[in-house]
Amino acid sequence: MPMRIGIVGAGMMGAEIALSFALAGNEVRLHDSDATSVERAMARLGEVLDKGAARGFYKAEDKQATLDRLLPTPDLAAYADREFVIEAVFEDVSVKSEVFRRLDAICVPDCLLASNTSTIPISTLAAALSAGRRGRFLGTHFFSPVSRMKLVEVIPGFETAPEVVERVMEICRAAAKEPIRVKDVAGFAVNRVLHAFLIEAVRLAEEEVATPEDIDKACRLGLGHPVGPFELMDLVTNGLTLQVQEILHDAYGPRFLPRPLLKQRVAAGHQGRRTGRGWKAYGR
């Protein structure tokens, strides 16, 4: 049965999470503190639907109906009627906590609340909520690009009710996602595997074992990966890659120490596709 869903954060992740739920027939509000971000997101989602239709992922005739279910929302107070709200803002405890304090004051008591954090423990974020809310709060970590990646890590916190975990997993399945339950630890499961891999890839480049381009090719052709590690970092941004590794390093020590070459790329402004230059140059 369709739900009233809200997404907070209109970046690449938040916008495509909103799209996935709208495609599943839900009414989805999309909010960002920067109104222009929502405008850009809506335009980008139209392009995502066009490309997806061309590749056979969606039906072209579903585009307008899907966009009609996406409601740009300048005032977070409109989330008072939402049944399920997912936060997808900047990966910072203080920023996310402020969002949850605001939602705590706005949403109805039985609203399900979730964070799309990729690294921050859910029980840490739960501290921003009133005690009565924490049983209905958990993590839902989607993967980029959300419109095509099926996995969702579902992470209960210390106080999350078991029935809430099951309900959220059902909601994800209804949106054509494949949820797995993961323990509440920094980085969860996938990012710990991924960033160990990315760190070693950058080390190979530093040691000139192979070029970033050839390492990408090796991982595509030798490991069957859809994209190589440097292509992936350019897609999600090198800044976010570094930020996640710093969080993992704080939690687990030297095995997740970010490599100097990645830090140099970020300091030089080589963020990836969005800026036109990352591990390689992109036409803009």
UniProtKB/TrEMBL annotation:
This protein's name: 3-hydroxyacyl-CoA dehydrogenase family protein
Keyword Oxidoreductase in annotation: yes
Matches recorded under InterPro entries: 3-OHacyl-CoA_DH (IPR022694), 3-OHacyl-CoA_DH_CS (IPR006180), 3-OHacyl-CoA_DH_NAD-bd (IPR006176), 3HC_DH_C (IPR006108), 6-PGluconate_DH-like_C_sf (IPR008927), 6PGD_dom2 (IPR013328), NAD(P)-bd_dom_sf (IPR036291)
Domain (3-hydroxyacyl-CoA dehydrogenase C-terminal): residue spans on this chain: 187-282
Record flagged with keyword Oxidoreductase: yes
Keyword annotations from UniProtKB, A to Z: Oxidoreductase
Superkingdom as given in the UniProt entry: Bacteria
PROSITE patterns, alphabetized: 3HCDH
Entry's family note: Belongs to the 3-hydroxyacyl-CoA dehydrogenase family.
Ranges for domain 3-hydroxyacyl-CoA dehydrogenase NAD binding: 5-185
